[in-house]
Amino acid sequence: MEKRYVGLIIVLVILATLVFDLSITKLVVLNRIDFLNPLMIWIGSSVIYALVAVISVGLLIWKKDKRNYIPVLLFAIILGFVFSLILKQVIGRLRPEFAPLIEPLSQFSFPSGHAIVVFSVLAILQKGFKKISKLWLVLAMVVCFSRVYLGVHYLSDVVFGALFGYFISIISLELEDNYRFSEKLLRIFGFSKKPVKKKKKRKKNKR
């Protein structure tokens, strides 16, 4: 799919979210299906943070030529989590006034931390796991849906959370591909003793 069409779809999704935010959120919450509740509670729980890290790192370990992306992937997950906490405090949007199926971690909802974290690794996985990354996208969307279903987020919380997370993933991937960010991270925390390669100055020929 061409980039211009992707951009158009994103714009349309954002507009639809802003217009129908409350009505879609209510529609989902008021039409819960009882036998799905336990599954949604599990998917939308805090366990997903650990699963995202374990599964994504496991995939990179499995594919040897992509192991160098592990540090930057973990960096993206942590950055996404911290970013969501900061934005929640700054924006201060209160959670929906519905009957939540779980107890939220904080009183603020925008953006969804779950959405940010689960999308923060997508671009990195797309680099080496095209088929698996499509499955991951489906999983990420289910996680986002579960947060609305559970009554702890508005639709806009998860939509913008997903966009923020994917943006973090793209930036992290660019840092790795263009600046060897993983090597620098490992060096900062003392896990790599490789010296920084410096460009040699050309000596002027003396005549």
List its salient traits.
single chain, about 210 residues, mainly alpha, 9 helices, about 65% helix, about 0% strand
Give an overview in words:
There is one protein chain. This protein starts with a helix and ends in a 19-residue tail after the last helix. The chain contains nine helices and no strands. It is mainly alpha-helical and 207 residues long. Helix 3 packs antiparallel against helix 4. Helix content is 67%, strand content 0%. The chain has one domain.
Provide a brief overview of the structure.
Helices cover 67% and strands 0% of the residues. The protein has 207 residues and is mostly helical.
Topology record:
Layout: H1 3-29, H2 37-43, H3 47-62, H4 70-91, H5 113-119, H6 122-128, H7 130-149, H8 155-179, H9 181-188
Helix pairs in contact: 1-8, 3-4, 4-5, 4-8, 5-7, 5-8, 6-7, 7-8
Overall number of domains = 1
Note the overall shape: globular
Straight-line N-to-C gap: 60 Å
Query: What class, by secondary structure content?
Result: mainly alpha
Oligomer description: single chain
